[in-house]
Structures are given as structure tokens and as C-alpha cells.
């Protein structure tokens, strides 16, 4: 988010507020999905916790890109969406 990316935490948990609360307790600004119709999450100040699949240029999942560490993942995201490092 510090690099200007919006982040979605997609979980099949019934209680998305519990996911948001856990992230908040660990220092990550987060909000539970309110059900508002949307295709994208563009807020770069907090994580959206949702069960919905939103359109995204990059998704880190157990079935897609294999996350190893955040530096490598961030570099791969930048490479995938052709965005230089802003730091």
C-alpha cells in the first residue's frame, strides 16, 4: 500500500469483520466488505477483507503465483503490471 497499490484480502470466512479485526490488531489498516457493488478496490490506505473475487492485475494465491517473501512478491507484481519501484 505504501507503494500506491490497493490490497484485497480474499477469504472464504463467513465473518469478514473478524479478518479485518485481526489485520488491524497486527497493525494493518483494514475494513470488512460492506457488500457495495464494485469490480475494483482502489483505496490504498486500507485492506478490503472480502469473499468476493474482484478484478485485479495480480493475485497471490496458493493456486497462482507462489509467494516466497514480500520483496520478491512486490518485484513480481511490479514486473507484471509494468510499474517501476516507487521507493
Short summary:
With 87 residues, this protein is an alpha/beta fold. It has two helices and three strands; from the N terminus they run E-H-E-E-H. 24% of the residues lie in helices and 11% in strands.
Show the helix and strand layout.
Blueprint: E1 8-10, H1 16-25, E2 30-32, E3 47-50, H2 70-80
Parallel strand pairs: 1-3, 2-3
Major sheet: order of its strands? 1-3-2
Strand content: 5-15%
Q: Please, what is the average pLDDT? A: 82
Q: Which geometry do the CA atoms define?
A: globular
The largest pleated sheet is described as: 3 strands, parallel
Low-confidence stretches: none
Give the strand tally: 3
Write down the Rg. Answer: 13 Å
Report how far apart the termini are.
12 Å
Amino acid at each position: 500500500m505504501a507503494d500506491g497499490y490497493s490490497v484485497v484480502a480474499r477469504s472464504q470466512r463467513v465473518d469478514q469483520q473478524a479478518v479485518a479485526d485481526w489485520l488491524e490488531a497486527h497493525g494493518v489498516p483494514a475494513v470488512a466488505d460492506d457488500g457495495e457493488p464494485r469490480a475494483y478496490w482502489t483505496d490504498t490506505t486500507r485492506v478490503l477483507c472480502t469473499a468476493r473475487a474482484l478484478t485485479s492485475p495480480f493475485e497471490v494465491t496458493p493456486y497462482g503465483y507462489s509467494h516466497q517473501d514480500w520483496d520478491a512478491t512486490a518485484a513480481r507484481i511490479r514486473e507484471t503490471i509494468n510499474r517501476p519501484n516507487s521507493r
